[in-house]
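Sequence design from tokenized structure. All designs in this work follow the same two-part layout: the structure record, then the generated sequence. An example of the structure record is given first.
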């Protein structure tokens, strides 16, 4: 019997109040151990789709993560790591304290993070002294706690320089080789050039292109 898909989303529609739907009947299936790039202009629905898969936004339709339905307080949560577009971390905590706190929340105490050497500053550094790029890296480290099978990243390199971006892409390729499935959203196709195995383009809440790369 074959393993279930990493992500299976069917007829996903998301509305915020009385406004026009942000997602309209979206269907997407993602094989395990692949990197999928989600692109499209701001407001196209990329971030909302990731939030729905992460179980952070209510939606119409159905989503499964590794065969587990995305429902409130469902078992799927232990399988998902999520990096939001806007990162908020306690400024007076150190890097070590922040990681320890979120590891406890995820039940991942003692979890070894698959980070390249030098990816984070010294663990005693206060969060409030970090640059935007360093905070982004810390938030990504937190998303990796618990060794998630599916990693959802919303504009993960928006605050990083070219060297930082390359470091992130290399780390993600390594995670893919170890079996992790990764969905990355960015409004800039150039950011994701050569990164994904597959590119999904959204426009006005619908998928308008879905292609396998290279």
């Amino acid at each position: 019997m074959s393993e279930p898909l990493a992500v299976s989303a069917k007829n996903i529609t998301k509305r915020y109040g009385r406004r026009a739907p942000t997602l309209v009947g979206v269907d997407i299936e993602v094989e395990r151990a692949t990197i999928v790039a989600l692109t499209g202009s701001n407001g196209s629905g990329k971030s909302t789709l990731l939030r729905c898969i992460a179980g952070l936004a209510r939606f119409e339709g159905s989503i499964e993560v590794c065969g587990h339905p995305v429902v409130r307080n469902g078992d799927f949560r232990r399988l998902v790591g999520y990096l939001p577009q806007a990162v908020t971390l306690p400024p007076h905590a150190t890097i070590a304290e922040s990681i320890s706190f979120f590891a406890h929340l995820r039940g991942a105490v003692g979890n070894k993070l698959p980070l390249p050497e030098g990816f984070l500053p010294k663990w005693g550094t206060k969060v409030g002294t970090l640059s935007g790029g360093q905070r982004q890296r810390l938030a990504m480290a937190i998303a990796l706690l618990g060794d998630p099978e599916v990693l959802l990243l919303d504009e993960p390199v928006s605050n990083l320089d070219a060297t930082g971006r390359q470091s992130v892409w290399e780390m993600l390729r390594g995670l893919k080789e170890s079996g992790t499935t990764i969905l990355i959203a960015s409004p800039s196709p150039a950011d994701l050039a050569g990164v994904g195995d597959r590119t999904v383009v959204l426009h006005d809440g619908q998928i308008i292109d879905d292609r396998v790369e290279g």
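Helices lie at 46-53, 95-106, 132-143, 162-177. We note this feature because it recurs in several other targets discussed in the main text.
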